[in-house]
Amino acid sequence: MPVLYKSAQPPLHDTNFRSLAVNTSTLALFAHIRAATATPTVQVNNHPFAFGRHCVMHNGVIGNFVTIARDLCMLLDDDAYSNITGSTDSEHFAALYITYLCRGRGKEAWSATYSVQQMRDALIQAMVTIFELQVKKLGVMAPANSLNAGTTLNSKFPDHPDGLTNSNAVKGAEEHGEHIIVASEPSTYKAAEWNLIEKNHCLLYDGTLRLEEVQYPIKLNSSVDSL
């Protein structure tokens, strides 16, 4: 199960976070600094959002979320809805995603392993549902959305975003090994190390890394059974 640490403090001023970052190892990490929009800056509104062994992190905004929130909640299974503790569009989107991924089976299905294709399809279906609800409520005035995800953190290795040497490094560059960082913006000065993920694309990794263009269905369908 994922371990979550959330704080409303700036990370550079959080001594607990700094200690955990130096002394923790993991094969998968989600790190998020939230730029609050219309909801309070409190711990429960911070990303990522966990449902059993699954974590979801969102970078962006669902346009006019308050207009579709009630209808969106009606589509969630009971356990996904009960797992929401905050008020952000992101957490509700995560609950919708997990409802589709687990086909509405609730907590018992949260510990299961799913293929990256199943995860991709549930993610696309959640996005399609957002579009569908916006069109239903707002018609041609339905707003644009920004739905992105990213992960990055480095405090143990010698590289530094500004091209300097990380004085806090406790590992050598050769110990880094193969890795994938998905970020909202480059976190180092070496532009050649980064590749832009274009809009409407999905990055998948299950031992093989591939980038796929997302093809949205012509007919929107928010039914769990449609997956």
Please explain how this structure is put together.
By secondary structure, the protein is of the alpha+beta class. It has five helices and six strands; from the N terminus they run H-E-E-E-H-H-H-H-E-E-E. The strands form three sheets. A two-stranded antiparallel ribbon has the order 1-2. Strands 3-4 form a two-stranded antiparallel ribbon. Strands 5-6 form a two-stranded antiparallel sheet. Strand 5 and strand 6 form a beta hairpin. Helix 2 (65-73) packs across helix 5 (116-138) and helix 4 (89-101) packs across helix 5 (116-138). The chain is globular and about 55 Å long. Mean pLDDT is 80; it is low at 149-154.
Quick summary:
With 227 residues, the protein is α+β, with helices and mostly antiparallel strands. It has helices at 15-23, 65-73, 78-82, 89-101, 116-138, and strands spanning 49-51, 54-56, 59-61, 146-148, 201-205, 209-213. A hairpin with a 3-residue loop joins strand 5 (201-205) and strand 6 (209-213).
Kindly report how far apart the N and C termini lie: 26 Å
Q: From the helix content, strand content and strand pairing, which structural class follows? A: alpha+beta
| DSSP helix fraction | 25-40%
Rg (CA only): 19 Å
Poorly predicted runs are 149-154
Strand percentage lies at: 5-15%
Task: Characterize the main sheet.
Answer: 2 strands, antiparallel
- Helical run tally: 5
- Overall pLDDT, averaged? 80
| Topology order in helix (H) and strand (E) letters | HEEEHHHHEEE
Overall geometry: globular
- Spatial arrangement of strands, main beta sheet: 1-2
Number of strands: 6
